[in-house]
Amino acid sequence: MNEQDIDIPCPICFASGNVKMIAHVDEIPYFGEHTQVTVQCHECGWRQTDFIPAEGKKPGGCSLFVNSSQRLSARVVRSSSCTVRIPELDLQVNPGGNSTGYVSNVEGVLNRFIDVINLVKRGHEAEILRAEDDTSRLELMDEMGSLNMMLSRLESLKEEEIDEPITMVLLDPHGHSMILHPDTVDRDLTDEELAELPVGPDPAVFSPDELD
Which pLDDT tens digit goes with each residue over 186-205? Predict the structure, then answer.
């Protein structure tokens, strides 16, 4: 596992000459051989990680219906180009320019949604206190009610009996993301999805030529 210089400026602090890359080939259980690529700026500390399978992949989506607590342990590889959706709650996380990949499980991905919703809730609570009129305050309180409903629904998935199941959907234009479970449904992405889905960080950051 060697650290290499890469000839790009840091996307955060724009410093040149301080961006390094580490490529580490490893066997992810049940997924096969992957290269874990980490790019880091030693000037500001910005860091980005992605996972690239050894075998070529095509754009694709996969989904798992989470209707039992046992499915929370299903392994998930989410690359930096992957959009994650929970359609029943109209929740979606898109990859941004600083998106990073991770290996987790279904419960870990749900916890990420929960953390974001709690962050939004705290912002709403502060706005309610600052609201200058009843109309704005009532609108914010209605939104708080929706956020609480989402939290309750997500937290209930950790109970032994799941009354309101959800579907976890991964859509990856680069085909690097997967859910490991026998009931995972794989499919191709449509032309419309390929045109609309964000692809995350500039793929040049993870150029295959840099990995040789």
Answer: 999 999 999 999 887 654 44
The structure tokens 């180009």 sit at 81
User: What sign results for the dihedral spanned by CA atoms 100, 101, 105, 109?
Assistant: positive
Q: Which residues contact 70 (CB under 8 A, 6 or more apart)?
A: none
- Residues of 170-184 as b/e, b for ≥16 C-beta within 10 angstroms? bbbbbbbbbbbbeeb
Tell me the per-residue pLDDT of 21-72, one tens digit each, with 9 for 90 and over.
887 777 766 556 667 788 888 889 888 887 776 565 678 999 999 999 999 9
Tell me how far apart the alpha carbons of residues 19 and 4 are, in angstroms, rounded to a whole number: 9
Residue 99 near residue 80 (C-beta atoms within 8 A): yes
Phi and psi, residue 75, nearest 5°? -70, 145
Which candidate, 92, 82, 66, places its Cα nearest to that of 163?
66
Q: What is the pTM of this model?
A: 0.73
CATH architecture of 3-211: Sandwich (2.60)
DSSP for 108-167, please give it. HHHHHHHHHHHHHHHHHHHHHHH--SHHHHHHHHHHHHHHHHHHHHHHHTTSSS-SS-EE
Q: What angle do CA 153, 116, 65 make, to 5 degrees?
A: 40
